[in-house]
């Protein structure tokens, strides 16, 4: 940490942890989030955060559509304190189709918890999200959840993590009992045994009986069969598995693994202790390419996400900013680097699901919701001091395309507004076709659900009923090089929101053929100025 930081900022940095949970839908992310908040005292009773379909009020799942379907699309940031440590948990949307947004959120965290279902191991969405974390070089913790249910053998699970993800998986705890007959965990470094006890509905923190393996009372807790199995397995673990090394973990090469049962709060308190001890604090913010920007005493932050109409009572757009360096204060005037404009930040919010409250100050690692007057875009930098380099935001080449139609043309004005705002938010990408007489754009998405969300939000928030005509393209690339307007290209040429040329192809095969035929142009999976 830089020495010119004030003791106040240093202290706040040291006590902060900003992280996200990455997982495949249904692994238990909502449950884990809820339990962590329960530990932090941020909620009184588990079940208040994300009651899914047909349960009642929710905090982090706020859109009607999400509630009806019981999926979590929109991200918010949850802040809670536990043992004087301040945690910022950035909620990443869980649905596999909603990927671009999720990836952006991962640029704003300092570490991630990878949550796996003990019966399923590494699943497709986890792989995608893992790759983003890996590219940034952020440390990753692993929790193997649902240990109370029939599960894969722990050695198999560890091997799968290593083989599929290419990261060394080191068990910090070890499950006791046969798979499916879970008795508790053995903590390898303290040599303590934590016995699993069900609690009614898992609403409260579970009391955990702990004692050393050598304790004479152990015989009454762990029967002979389980004890022999444990001894045998621990011997194999010591022999076959690399010891945990903090440096390798911080470089993203090694992941500490914990076995848990989130629904019953089991394994979470010792996890949280180890997490707090090992997870880097926000002075170690890394860019998307893994570099560390210099620590600075001056405020700087970056927008990682824009969200319109979050709350029906406040129909506005919120830009989510992560404080990167220095102290943020309400009413601060900052420089918006992309436009060069000075902006006064008068309405900074802390958001907790639907609720928002004005905040006076924030420190590195914190997330501030800024009411967005249309100026902010994901990736924008705000600073009071020197110009500042941070993550280049990843873009993903869309694979689904359609032309959009408005049913009732008298709503054209709000239709255009909706297109602008939802496009800016990144719900879908809006591509312009200069040859189209109707000036109707092409919508491009990475996943199917993006289109559905777009359609629903157009109706709900802009009162516009839209239909889509699917277009027969399956791949796209941004183009670098000189484009001839009448170049007779065999791909379709459109322009993105910043007027950068984008080529659309029928499929991957077509794309590879075109790319091979055009040595004068470069075809990139992200914008050329990325
Ligand atoms: P998400 O889709 O990752 O947010 O998953 P949820 O938290 O909604 O969990 C999916 C399902 O798994 C729900 O029915 C949970 O009650 C259940 N679940 C979560 N954790 C556990 C666990 O530790 N054990 C068992 N048996 N079920 C769990």
From TrEMBL:
Query: Per UniProt, where does GTP bind?
Result: 23-30, 91-95, 145-148
Do the record's keywords include Acetylation? Answer: no
Listed InterPro entries? EF-G-like_DII, EFG_III/V, G_TR_CS, P-loop_NTPase, PrfC, RF3_C, RF3_dom_3_sf, RF3_GTP-bd
A GO molecular function held by the record: translation release factor activity, codon specific
> Where does it reside?
Cytoplasm
- A Pfam family it matches: RF3_C
Its domain of life? Bacteria
Main localization is: cytoplasm
Q: Which family does it belong to?
A: Belongs to the TRAFAC class translation factor GTPase superfamily. Classic translation factor GTPase family. PrfC subfamily.
This protein is called what?
Peptide chain release factor 3
Supply the source organism for this entry: Acanthopleuribacter pedis
């Amino acid at each position: 940490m830089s020495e010119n930081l004030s003791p106040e900022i240093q202290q706040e940095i040291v006590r902060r942890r900003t992280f996200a949970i990455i997982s495949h839908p249904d692994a238990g992310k909502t449950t884990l989030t809820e339990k962590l908040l329960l530990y932090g005292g941020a909620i009184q009773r588990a079940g208040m955060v994300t009651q899914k379909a047909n349960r009642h009020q929710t905090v982090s799942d706020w859109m009607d559509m999400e509630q009806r379907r019981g999926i979590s699309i929109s991200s918010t940031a949850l802040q809670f304190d536990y043992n004087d440590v301040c945690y910022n948990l950035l909620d990443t949307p869980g649905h596999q189709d909603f990927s671009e947004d999720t990836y952006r959120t991962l640029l704003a965290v300092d570490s991630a918890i990878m949550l796996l279902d003990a019966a399923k191991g590494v699943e497709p969405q986890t792989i995608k999200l893992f790759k983003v974390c890996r590219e940034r070089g952020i440390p990753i913790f692993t929790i193997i959840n649902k240990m109370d249910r029939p599960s894969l053998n722990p050695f198999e699970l560890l091997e799968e993590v290593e083989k599929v993800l290419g990261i060394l998986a080191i068990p910090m705890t070890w499950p006791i009992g046969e798979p499916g007959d879970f008795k508790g965990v053995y903590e390898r470094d303290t040599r303590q045994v934590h016995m699993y006890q069900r609690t009614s509905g898992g609403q409260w923190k579970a009391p955990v009986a702990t004692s050393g393996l050598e304790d004479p009372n152990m015989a009454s807790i762990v029967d002979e069969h389980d004890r022999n199995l444990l001894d045998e397995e621990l011997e194999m673990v010591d022999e076959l598995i690399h010891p945990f090394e903090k440096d390798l973990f911080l470089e993203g090469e090694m992941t500490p693994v914990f076995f848990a049962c989130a629904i019953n709060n089991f394994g979470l308190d010792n996890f949280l202790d180890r997490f707090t001890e090992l997870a880097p604090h926000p002075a170690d913010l890394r860019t998307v390419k893994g570099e560390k920007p210099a620590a600075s005493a001056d405020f700087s932050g970056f927008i990682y996400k824009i969200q319109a109409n979050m709350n029906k009572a406040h129909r506005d757009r919120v830009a989510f900013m992560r404080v990167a360096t220095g102290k943020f204060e309400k009413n601060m005037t900052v420089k918006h680097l992309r436009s060069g404009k000075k902006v006064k930040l008068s309405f900074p919010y802390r958001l907790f699901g639907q609720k928002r409250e004005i905040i006076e100050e924030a420190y590195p690692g914190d997330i501030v919701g800024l009411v967005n007057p249309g100026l902010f875009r994901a990736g924008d930098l705000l600073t009071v001091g020197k110009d500042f380099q941070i993550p280049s935001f990843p873009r993903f080449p869309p694979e689904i395309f359609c032309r959009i139609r408005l049913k009732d043309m008298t709503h054209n004005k709000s239709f255009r507004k909706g297109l602008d705002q939802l496009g800016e938010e990144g719900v879908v990408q809006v591509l312009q076709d200069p040859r189209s007489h109707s000036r109707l754009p092409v919508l491009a998405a990475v996943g199917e659900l993006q289109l559905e969300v777009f359609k629903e939000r157009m109706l709900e928030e802009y009162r516009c009923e839209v239909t889509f005509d699917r277009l027969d393209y399956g791949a796209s690339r941004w183009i670098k090089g000189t484009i001839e307007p009448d170049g007779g290209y065999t791909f379709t040429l459109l322009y993105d929101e910043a007027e950068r040329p984008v080529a659309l192809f029928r499929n991957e095969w077509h794309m590879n053929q075109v790319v091979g035929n055009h040595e004068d142009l470069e075809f990139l999976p992200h914008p050329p100025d990325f």
